[in-house]
Amino acid sequence: MSRRPSPGRRRPFAVLVLVALVTAGVLTGAPAAQGAATHRPVIVLDPGHSRTVYAVDERTGLVVSDYENEPEMRDVFAVAKLVAARLRHDGYRVVLTKTRLHQRRTLAQRAAVANRVHAALALSIHDQAGRSGGVGFRAGNNIVYYQSVGAYRSTPSGRHVVFRDKAVAKRSKTYARIFARQRHAVQRATVTSRRNVGYDLGSRGLAGGNMWMVQLLSRVPWIYNEAGGNSRGRVGLTAADRRTYAQALVRSVEACVPVPHRT
């Protein structure tokens, strides 16, 4: 996501975002100049939700559909763009799972993006907004989910597809602890880490099970972030709260996967 103009002094986050947007392009995921790219960790950003799409994953038989959810979809896409700009400025290669706000993307397609580029880390960005059931940005729902062996989702026939990659699960758990600490420090809110959803997702009309689908289908460490989605006095996030969420995620990524020093 070099960035420090002088020791002990940082340029304002908004300025860095504007510079990076102009010079790098936010959504291309293109690598840097040849020769430097191999030293740059690849980070995949997964802004939540999509125009409604129905699909079944041919390999697993899982229903991998997705749906619209506003204002969350718009807010987290904006947050993802801020995170992408800062990370690129700081030396990372960044790929987004969708390149347009209303682009249709199945959950399997999202996971495939991270697998294809061999991401060092992937992270989903979600929040809980709305007039009914919405949560204040700092009031609650600040959760970091990690992959764990034994978590699963169910096919329509009832077969369980189980997560079994111990190495990925171990790294994901380590990263989740870092995300929880860094997000707490930036957001000034209690942030918890969880090994699974904690209930049967089938109760919401989704494929049954207790693991987020993108994490199950991923072969790389994947952190699934939730946050409160309503800023004070409104439905959805203000620009200031979007920036705070983005800063928290940037700091988390950089603590998990530092850019190697080049000599």
UniProtKB/TrEMBL annotation:
Positions of the MurNAc-LAA domain: 43-182
Pfam families with a match to the protein in the record: Amidase_3 (PF01520)
Protein name per its UniProtKB record: N-acetylmuramoyl-L-alanine amidase
Keywords associated with the record: Hydrolase, Signal
GO MF assignments: N-acetylmuramoyl-L-alanine amidase activity
GO cellular component terms given for this protein: outer membrane-bounded periplasmic space
InterPro entries: MurNAc-LAA_cat, N-acetylmuramoyl_amidase_3
Signal peptide: 1-35
Gene Ontology biological-process annotations: peptidoglycan catabolic process
Lineage: superkingdom: Bacteria
